[in-house]
Amino acid sequence: MIESKQIWNGRVLPEWVDYNGHLNDAYYALIFSRSLDALMDEIGLDEEGRKANAYTIFTLEAHIKYLKEAHENEELHTNVTVLNKDEKRMHLWFEMKNEENTTVATSEQMVMGMDQISGRPAPFPDTVDVRINQFPRLPKENWPTGANTLMGIREKK
Q1: Is 12 helix (H, G, I), strand (E, B) or coil?
Q2: Which end of the chain is less enclosed by CB atoms within 10 A, N or C?
């Protein structure tokens, strides 16, 4: 079982449903983006925190895996785990789950802290760093299956 923290919840809106009758892939990305925003709020980088610290977070890379369809009005929530962290970056694992707690999709993200005055990467402000360190974190040997994997066509032997 992955130790994680619930960070976002909501429902699949009608305008998010595509011609196949389920959540369009772009809206999976939107939900994971909103999940990162919610994480930022929790670590003290909400609107007020971004202004006070002149600091924000940029996404460097994101990889979504679509595992199950989600349908109109379905209730979803996302959980986050910090896989790794250094002074200015976080390697994050988000899981989107439905009401039955079945994983619908995952998003692995690498994000970086940015000084908004210089426009350059910078270490997390101390108060933010303390809050990040309160989030669940896993040693590499306990990372979820699928984390840090390459994408490609698997050749048949």
Answers
A1: coil
A2: C
Is residue 150 in some structural domain? no
Percent of the chain whose predicted confidence (pLDDT) is above 90: 83
What is the Cα–Cα distance from 50 to 73, expressed in whole angstroms? Answer: 33
Q: What is the DSSP string of 86-99?
A: -SSEEEEEEEEEET
pLDDT at 1: 44
- Closest among 86, 80, 78, 40 to 59, alpha carbons compared: 40
Tokens 């690498």, residue located:
110
pTM: 0.92
Q: Is the pLDDT of residue 11 over 70?
A: yes
Residue 66, Cβ neighbours under 10 Å: how many? 14
Give the tokens for residue 74: 């379905």
Total domains present in the chain: 1
